[in-house]
Amino acid sequence: MTTTHQNPHQTIAERADHYPTRYVEQPGLVDRNDPVVAGTAEDGPFDGDHLQRIEEKGYTQVPELFTASEVERMRQELNRLAGDPEVLADERTITEAGSGALRSVFEVHRTNELFRSVARDPRLVARAEQVLGGPVAIHQSRVNFKPGFTGKEFSWHSDFETWHAEDGMPTPRAISVSIALTENHAYNGPLMIMPGSHRRFVSCVGETPEENYRSSLVMQGAGTPDEGSLTRLYEEYGIDVLTGGAGGAIWFDSNCMHASPGNITPAPRSNVFIVYSAADNECGAPYAAPAPRPEFLGAREHREVLQSH
Amino acid sequence: MTTTHQNPHQTIAERADHYPTRYVEQPGLVDRNDPVVAGTAEDGPFDGDHLQRIEEKGYTQVPELFTASEVERMRQELNRLAGDPEVLADERTITEAGSGALRSVFEVHRTNELFRSVARDPRLVARAEQVLGGPVAIHQSRVNFKPGFTGKEFSWHSDFETWHAEDGMPTPRAISVSIALTENHAYNGPLMIMPGSHRRFVSCVGETPEENYRSSLVMQGAGTPDEGSLTRLYEEYGIDVLTGGAGGAIWFDSNCMHASPGNITPAPRSNVFIVYSAADNECGAPYAAPAPRPEFLGAREHREVLQSH
């Protein structure tokens, strides 16, 4: 569908927008207009079952994709970052509202040697290429730390909704991988996904404030789906709670409706998170924001196209 | 152990206190000094496996203890209460901080005909008698409603710690039953228990403010276990997430370390909660509070001793 809504942020020549959000007057569900899995089992390490799960549920899990010693190195590096005053002071570092504890460090695929090599690891790049059907580039990377006792919840959202509205990502041809550095239990703030929800796009209501990213990374505002749409998606798809051991990877489509509950247990939770986008899915002007977010949150140009072979 | 700590709230002739809390200077773990299961499989409906689980883990689950139509009647009654202005204005009703939505209605075994009959149902009373080894009385009852999207978390605590400190309950010879009126999923704010933790008592630090109950039912303060003790218990016992269908009952010892996470999903959660105490475990002066809590939170005298036969 080509929307006829008036988009106040339309800064480049009039674009068709199949995924209107924030400038709409009513919330609602739009069917996805882009492929989920573009490649086949012959194209890479994912077998047919994995690709089918991504196609149908929007996600798949690969246990032990990284070894215990690789995980240990990443965990040590995350601990080092959490204690580095320069990192804590960097604008690419997000700290917990209230406690000031480390929550996320962004753009680690550029700033950190270890995580740069992880992001370019063929185990990841080849799978991303396979799903997206060609060369890929990194849209975003970060390491996340959800402490015990005080880890805050993150409410339901589609990452693509934000990337489309605020970064100008044209289509949801992007896939994220979350590499667990700690065990994900059902009780310590695990990822929850509505399986199948990646095939529907929830148009959200509410204009994007200027520099929205400064608060939205800690507390959600614009881009929050309405309760009616979430209830419809829940009734249609239910909720999967994704658990698994350290070193395992969760691959999930950029438009999955997902959330994570708070973590009130003593068990902290950390992971490495990398978003691969199809190389030709380069960001343009934001679809619904006064200005694009900074480069560390969403790569503006696909300067570094990755290839696994 | 007979504590030698100075208890400023010692209002009756000096009592030995095996479970010192709040008036202590350091937090710490004390081994339980009272039986968990006093009866045998011959004494009532629980078989040996159930009693063993209560003895070892501190809890057991009985699926489908109430029928679908009984659950439906209770759910309708809870909905009626949630819309009754008189109930909402009653001091025995707790509403969610912020939204004002119904969270709990206390003392329903006295004020509400349906829940009075539930609390006296032989399926419940006979099991409570069996565990506690004799006649029982109700210490507290309530119906709980945790709404979708905004259901708040409840941090780790032992109910007995509060009942001992603030109600003057001498020993943890009390058992609670939670009857699910909705399905308990891993994702909609389920009960979490550290299995085995009922054998340890966590002495908490921090004096009880006057009329503490007015805030503690919504937000926890005094009686909050320290993170060090919680981490020790977690490392020793782990965490069980208790899921199950509507109509199922969770029985758990009064000293279980338990919590429930927030509920950010669209699926609300409600239950009926009744605490049975051994008839001779009558409350005296509070062990660590300026004055006892009101009768609706903790029965002062066991005026109504229940018997299933």
TrEMBL record, chains A, B:
Domain of life: Bacteria
Pfam families in UniProt: PhyH
Gene3D superfamilies: q2cbj1_9rhob like domain
EC annotation from Swiss-Prot or TrEMBL: 1.14.11.55
Catalytic activity, as annotated: L-ectoine + 2-oxoglutarate + O2 = 5-hydroxyectoine + succinate + CO2
Keywords noted in UniProt: Dioxygenase, Iron, Metal-binding, Oxidoreductase
InterPro entries reported for this sequence: EctD, Phytyl_CoA_dOase-like
Keyword Iron among record annotations: yes
Entry keyword rRNA processing: no
Cofactors (names): Fe(2+)
Molecular function per GO: 2-oxoglutarate-dependent dioxygenase activity; iron ion binding
Described function: Involved in the biosynthesis of 5-hydroxyectoine, called compatible solute, which helps organisms to survive extreme osmotic stress by acting as a highly soluble organic osmolyte. Catalyzes the 2-oxoglutarate-dependent selective hydroxylation of L-ectoine to yield (4S,5S)-5-hydroxyectoine.
Subunit text: Homodimer.
The family this protein is said to belong to: Belongs to the PhyH family. EctD subfamily.
Protein known as: Ectoine hydroxylase
Species: Kytococcus aerolatus
